[in-house]
TrEMBL record:
It comes from the Bacteria. Residues 1-33 are annotated as: Disordered. Coiled coil: none annotated. Pfam families: EpuA (PF11772). Residues 11-27 have a biased composition (Basic and acidic residues). Residues 1-10 have a biased composition (Polar residues). The keyword Cell membrane does not apply. GO terms for cellular component: DNA-directed RNA polymerase complex. The chain crosses the membrane at residues 44-70. InterPro entries: RNApol_su_b/EpuA (IPR024596). Keywords: DNA-directed RNA polymerase, Membrane, Transcription, Transmembrane, Transmembrane helix. This is DNA-directed RNA polymerase subunit beta.
């Protein structure tokens, strides 16, 4: 397939541009051998702890709302052992 002279010039220019870009990157890498280290403002281990805490608070809030608001119980009774023993007996009763 024959290309006219203007498209051949464009291809040549594009190839030259790519080569210049590669050379520029190589010289920048050689000039600054130190790599930038990304410092996380919020470390991964802290993210995991925060997610676990949010989940725990959600479960507690759900239990309080479910037992006291929807179930007409008292908020103080939500986390008593007798309450949960009674609920498990109701669920497991055959």
């Amino acid at each position: 397939m024959a290309l006219n002279s203007s498209s051949q010039e464009m291809v040549k220019t594009r190839e030259e541009f790519k080569e210049e870009k590669k050379e520029k990157q190589n010289t920048e890498e050689m000039a600054s051998p130190k790599r930038k280290i990304r410092v996380r403002l919020f470390p991964i281990w802290l993210r995991i702890i925060v997610i676990i805490l949010i989940m725990a608070v959600s479960v507690l809030a759900g239990a309080i709302v479910g037992y006291s608001v929807m179930g007409d119980g008292r908020v103080n009774d939500t986390f008593k052992n007798e309450t949960w023993a009674h609920i498990s007996n109701l669920i497991n009763e055959e």
